[in-house]
Known about the structure:
This protein is mostly helical and 355 residues long. It has 12 helices and 2 strands, in the order ααααααββαααααα.
Amino acid sequence: MEDLEETLLGEFENYSYVLEYYSPEADLEESARLGVVHWVSLVLYCLAFVLGIPGNATVIWFTGFKWRKTVTTLWFLNLAIADFIFLLFLPLYISYVAMNFHWPFGIWLCKANSFIAQLNMFASVLFLTVISLDRYIHLIHPVLSHRYRTLRNALIVIIFVWLLASLMGGPALYFRDTLEFDNQTLCYNNFHEHDSDLTVMRHHVLTWVKVIVGYLFPLLTMGICYLCLIFKVKKRSILISSKHFWTILAVVTAFFICWTPYHLFSIWELTIHHSGYFHQVLQAGIPLSTGLAFLNSCLNPILYVLISKKFQAHFRASVAEILKNTLWEVSCSSTASDQLRNSESKNPCLLETAQ
């Protein structure tokens, strides 16, 4: 049993840096540096949760229940849903990191938490890709857009995106596992317990699939769409007057600023199987890039408010309507109470009956 545990531990160290954050062999300076990285990443996770939950809930409320259903509102509704579901599970990961990488929640939550994180990443980038393609077709090929850009077709695309994102996140449900040692439980990728070559192969395949499908292909698609929009739309006034162009461009830019370091360090992490030369850089870079990626889940609602004048107008109108309805209900309730008190004071029989 002890030999098996040592084997698992050795293989685990090849593709995860959880065990190396507070290595006993590390000198004081390195331990202090990793400790700072540990707490900075925790701050990023907490910031994403605190800002993201109310922000995405607001977007879901307005786009899903208050505003008229359009193709565009459906795109942003599902983008907010993906971020919101991920953020609901984020406290589990925050607790995991805060407890010095001890996972007390069991193997099924270990699998579910990792699956939700992968689902959010793929769903977000796929919806951003769909939004960019939709904007390109709507502006450059309006006849084609008018013919096929319907709510029914949008729902078909949305179902396809969620199924594809679930499929891409599926390996987390299979490979994610827990490992107990030294009175701690780790949640990690158990690619294989004994075959190191198979472990390396699976790690490489899953990492490159994640990078290509979740980063390179969407980056290329969105880049082409926006370059075509910039070059083909000759009149700048048309480009600026586009209702959602700048908002979508800002959301896409934020996604790639937040996720680019994560994917770069994921590729860099593959070298750990062959050389430990960059251990220290990866120890600091992976948690920070992960925190930056998580932060993207709270940025979209902020960008909607800061950039989109249409969203601001809808938001103000919706808030004003809610306040008006609330005040009207309070006023009606107060008026009814006053009328009841007046009628009771004028009619002694009502007072006697109440007593």
